[in-house]
């Protein structure tokens, strides 16, 4: 994981300023304005009668009435690519010295090809390659719909294997570190390889299938 101090982070509210104040009410409860946190609540007598203090929505905040869905449902947020490079890569690792993990990884690779044939999937490497210190294989995810289906599926079906899910924004080092998401145990990548790879290219790496290195 990269040191956050290496980067700047614009406010999440950039472009959303000036909206109507959000409701301070929750379903079945009223926010106690005497508290500076959301920790203290008291029974509400002002919540609309349609709201109920029981059920799965109890105690959740009442949000504004939606006018349209977020564009994130249909395209990846900038600067994640929505092109042929694929918005996200999933690297699925296994210890090549452990036969049971090798077998599981090979079977998982086959299952993904059969159940998710629309995804782009590469060979099973039986050794470390590029910045990846263990054997692994890579799956490319092209749309939010694919991401929403495949990633939760992988949470359940990855078994004993670790998985790195990272975006492709054109900044390979940051994508593999500060913007990375891990399932299972995180594995230290050879970040120096990524930095050297980018330096040699004179620009950000374009992708594994184009430069011949799994990134």
UniProtKB/TrEMBL annotation:
Signal peptide: none annotated. Residues 46-68 have a biased composition (Polar residues). Residues 37-68 are annotated as: Disordered. PANTHER family: AFR070WP. This is DOPA-dioxygenase. It comes from Meristemomyces frigidus.
């Amino acid at each position: 994981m990269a040191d956050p101090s290496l980067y700047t982070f614009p406010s999440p509210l950039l472009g959303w300023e000036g909206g109507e104040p959000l409701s301070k009410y929750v379903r079945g409860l009223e926010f106690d304005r005497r508290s500076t946190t959301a920790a203290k609540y008291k029974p509400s007598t002002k919540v609309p009668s349609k709201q109920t203090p029981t059920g799965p929505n109890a105690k959740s905040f009442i949000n504004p009435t939606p006018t349209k869905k977020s564009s994130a449902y249909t395209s990846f947020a900038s600067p994640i690519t929505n092109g042929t490079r694929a918005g996200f890569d999933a690297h699925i690792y296994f210890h090549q010295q452990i036969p049971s993990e090798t077998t599981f990884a090979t079977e998982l690779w086959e299952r993904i090809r059969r159940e998710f044939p629309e995804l782009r999937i590469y060979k099973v490497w039986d050794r470390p390659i590029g910045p990846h210190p263990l054997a692994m294989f890579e799956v490319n995810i092209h749309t939010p719909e694919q991401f929403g289906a495949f990633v939760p599926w992988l949470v359940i079906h990855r078994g004993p294997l670790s998985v790195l899910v990272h975006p492709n924004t054109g900044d390979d080092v940051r994508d593999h570190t500060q913007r990375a998401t891990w399932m299972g145990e995180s594995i230290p990548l050879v970040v120096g390889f990524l930095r050297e790879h980018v330096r040699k290219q004179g620009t950000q790496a374009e992708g594994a299938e184009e430069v011949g290195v799994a990134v």
